Design the sequence.
């Protein structure tokens, strides 16, 4: 039986676009074929999780039933009452499957991974947790089982985002863009597909498949004579960091382009992150839907809670603590390994320093011109690259394996 | 924004696809391979060239130079002064090796590689260097993915007229590999071969189409891999070699070079190799090879597939059995008895099927400067090999008389413990 992993080879794109053709033609003529869209999505999701990956198929069904009941139950409850404890319990229950799947490899629970794990569990969890939080806020008032499923299982972004927001998504999916707008979306879709091809199949291939393994083996070879250090770590760092970007940005472009063909304006995930002028700017440009999710649902809420409860006197301490907790949680989310957690801590501390510097700059009238901007971009880029080297886990392999 | 129609958006895409298809399917060759680039590629070890067909066939069809395929593995990379490529170039012999192999190439990879160069093997000569290290019990195919070439697989499939036991065996071997398992296209056809069912007309047509596209890709991309080995290694070496093609002079030069380049260790291992690959782990490596065993391995059956292909093409082959560095194997505790038994097993497989051109150096690993490092032939080793290679290739093609025994594909043979008695009994 055919198993189709999203956006992996030319055949996938041909099959995908042929399958979406009736949908696109209908949109062009001002109709949205909801049923057809759902069937195509389900077929593609099925082809992702069939064959040897059948256990992931069962896991996603189990997961969806769980989240569906949870969000439904919470919405019903929220209409009547608004107890904080209930809200926390609901959020924790929504995170439990993801938490177990992340814990499983460290605790060596292989059966948990096979039972609950599937490609994309993180991204689906983000979506449903987001819905619970917005229901708590009163922004989402009704539970529509049909729209919930379409939101959660929106095919283009099911495996690795971008992470959309429910209310935004529903607005798109329940309307039809007019012809001019849809043509504009198609034009962008073509551009994004081809840019994605360049990123993922050319640049990421050169960096990740051709260069990186060579640099890594040279680094390992030379580090074994030089107490764990080697100049080869420098090319390892840059190739890994750039590959990470081109691979993920390429994938995200495919997801966005596909959603445009389906008449949905999925948000973009990257905005020239390596041109960021400081770390804060970087997080506004890198994996945007994730970092905004963390900003809105973790950072802001933490700050708000800490201010309300007056844990710290100064607003500065509050925001600094919130930065570090926020980034640490992101680190833990990547996986329970020291290097992911160190990566989170690195960025948390980095943001604190970044903030301090910005305040210092304001106060002391530090010169600002074209040259300092280029310098800022250069420094930010290199700081980010160092953090990606940490993130890659290569140091773990080099030193502890 | 200016109003744009569908044609504006999709026109360029359609044109681009049409151009790519035209490029891939154009019925004429798009490259010109010069004699210099052929010479460079004969010592390039480029993976693209190894996996491809265009450059290799251009070399074997070269009118001005007779390129002979040298199959082997990592020893071919040891481009020292007495390497076969250097000797042939220096003394303007009537042949020039085309080196096919590098670290990790074993029989299965060579079998597939031979599929795309059958005209170069048919009633022609070849040299095949065997390393006992191929014949390990487990993980014999770890490097296979690196050298896997869809083009070769297509060549193999299209060459099958009547499904032979070798074809079925190769099919089963390939079906264990991830690249094949994951590809619906190949998986489906190779399962047919493994089930002894001929391919359909559609299959053949699909294969022809695929071959055309892959060959074009090969023509376009394998030319990219430039190698400077010829100018960096072969040319300087030819300046160092004695002017006259004379074995006592060559041997003296080999002795001198060997002595000069193995000064930092007692194993007569080349200095650079010792420094980077051995020195820091020297203590851990003592006795590290006591458990090595080359006597039972599925590699014996893969090797049989290679022999069957040589027989099918009536190729006149010289087999070279490479020794191990005895000083090193004594230190690491490689069992001599085990090693010689595995050599006997290879030789039995060769002799009993009529492959009688065997240069067995397995007993020479202790001679001075015979090895360049732990398991690869070097200076004196290459001179000794040349004493067999030169007459073999200069005499030219001799008609062959091989008689293939398919029992050598069996598990019984793969797992046979090669005691003298067992080897004599195996039929």
Sequence:
């Amino acid at each position: 039986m055919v198993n189709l992993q999203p956006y992996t080879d030319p055949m996938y794109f041909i099959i995908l676009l042929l399958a979406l053709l009736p949908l696109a033609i209908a949109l062009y003529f001002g109709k949205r074929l909801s049923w057809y869209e759902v069937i195509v999505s389900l077929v593609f999701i099925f082809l992702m999780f069939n064959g040897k990956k059948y256990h992931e198929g069962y896991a996603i069904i189990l997961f969806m039933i769980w989240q569906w009941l949870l969000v439904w139950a919470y919405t019903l409850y929220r209409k009547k009452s608004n107890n904080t404890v209930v809200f926390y319990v609901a959020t924790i229950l929504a995170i439990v499957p993801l938490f177990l799947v992340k814990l499983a490899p460290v605790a060596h629970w292989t059966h948990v991974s096979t039972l609950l794990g599937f490609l994309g569990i993180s991204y689906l969890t983000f979506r449903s947790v987001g819905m619970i939080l917005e229901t708590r806020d009163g922004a989402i008032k009704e539970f529509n089982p049909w729209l919930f499923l379409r939101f959660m299982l929106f095919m283009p972004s099911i495996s690795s985002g971008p992470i959309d927001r429910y209310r935004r998504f529903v607005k798109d999916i329940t309307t039809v863009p007019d012809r001019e707008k849809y043509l504009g979306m198609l034009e962008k879709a073509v551009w994004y597909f081809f840019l994605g091809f360049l990123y993922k199949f050319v640049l990421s291939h050169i960096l990740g498949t051709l260069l990186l393994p060579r640099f890594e083996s040279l680094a390992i070879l030379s580090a074994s004579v030089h107490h764990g250090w080697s100049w080869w770590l420098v090319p390892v760092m840059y190739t890994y960091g750039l590959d990470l970007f081109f691979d993920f940005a390429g994938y995200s472009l495919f997801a966005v382009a596909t959603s445009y063909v389906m008449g949905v304006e999925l948000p973009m995930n990257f905005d020239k992150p390596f041109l960021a002028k400081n770390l804060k700017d970087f997080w506004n440009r890198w994996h945007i839907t994730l970092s905004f999710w963390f900003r809105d649902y973790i950072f802001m809420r933490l700050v708000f809670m800490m201010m309300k409860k007056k844990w710290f006197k100064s607003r500065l301490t509050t925001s600094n603590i919130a930065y570090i907790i926020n980034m640490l949680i992101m680190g833990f989310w990547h996986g329970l390994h020291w290097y992911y957690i160190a990566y989170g801590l690195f960025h948390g501390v980095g943001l604190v320093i970044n903030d301090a510097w910005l305040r210092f700059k304001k106060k002391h009238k530090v010169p600002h011109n074209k040259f300092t901007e280029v310098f800022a971009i250069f420094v930010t880029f290199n700081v980010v690259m160092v953090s990606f080297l940490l993130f890659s886990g290569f140091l773990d392999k080099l030193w502890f394996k | 924004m200016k109003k744009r129609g569908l044609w504006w958006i999709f026109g360029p895409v359609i044109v681009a696809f049409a151009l790519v298809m035209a490029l891939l399917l154009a019925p004429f060759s798009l490259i010109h391979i010069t004699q210099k680039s052929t010479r460079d590629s004969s010592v390039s070890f480029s993976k693209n060239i190894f996996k491809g067909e265009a450059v290799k066939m251009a070399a074997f069809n070269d009118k001005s130079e007779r390129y002979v395929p040298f199959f082997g593995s990592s020893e071919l990379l040891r481009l020292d002064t007495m390497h076969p490529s250097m000797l042939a170039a220096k003394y303007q012999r009537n042949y020039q090796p085309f080196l096919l192999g590098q670290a990790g190439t074993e029989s299965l990879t060579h079998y597939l590689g031979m599929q795309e160069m059958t005209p170069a093997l048919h009633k022609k000569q070849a040299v095949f260097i065997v390393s006992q290290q191929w014949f390990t019990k487990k993980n014999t195919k770890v490097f296979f993915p690196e050298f896997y070439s869809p083009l070769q697989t297509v060549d193999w499939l299209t060459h099958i007229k009547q499904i032979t036991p070798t074809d079925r065996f190769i099919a089963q071997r390939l079906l264990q590999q991830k690249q094949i398992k994951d590809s619906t296209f190949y998986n489906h056809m190779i399962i047919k071969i493994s089930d002894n069912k001929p391919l359909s007309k559609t299959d053949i047509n699909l294969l022809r189409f695929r071959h055309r596209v892959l060959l074009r890709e090969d023509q376009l991309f394998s030319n990219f891999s430039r190698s400077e080995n010829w100018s960096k290694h072969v040319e300087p070496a030819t300046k160092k070699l004695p002017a006259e093609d004379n074995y006592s002079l060559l041997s003296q030069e080999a002795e001198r070079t060997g002595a000069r380049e193995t000064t930092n260790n007692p194993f007569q291992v080349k200095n650079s190799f010792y420094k980077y690959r051995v020195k820091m782990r020297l203590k851990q490596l003592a006795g590290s090879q006591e458990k090595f065993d080359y006597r039972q391995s599925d590699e014996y059956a893969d090797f049989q597939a290679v022999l069957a292909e040589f027989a099918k093409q009536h190729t006149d082959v010289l087999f070279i059995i490479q020794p191990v560095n005895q000083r090193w194997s004594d230190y690491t505790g490689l069992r001599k008895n085990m090693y010689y038994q595995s050599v006997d097993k290879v030789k039995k497989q060769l002799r009993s099927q009529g492959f009688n051109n065997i240069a067995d150096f397995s007993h020479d690993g202790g001679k001075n400067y015979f090895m360049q490092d732990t398991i690869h032939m070097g200076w004196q080793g290459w001179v000794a090999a040349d004493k067999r290679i030169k007459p073999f290739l200069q005499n030219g093609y001799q008609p062959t008389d091989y008689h293939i025994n398919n029992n050598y594909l069996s598990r019984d043979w793969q797992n046979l413990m090669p005691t003298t008695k067992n080897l004599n009994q195996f039929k």
Q: What stands out?
A: The first strand of chain B starts at residue 67 and ends at 71. Residues 201-221 of chain B form the longest helix (21 residues).
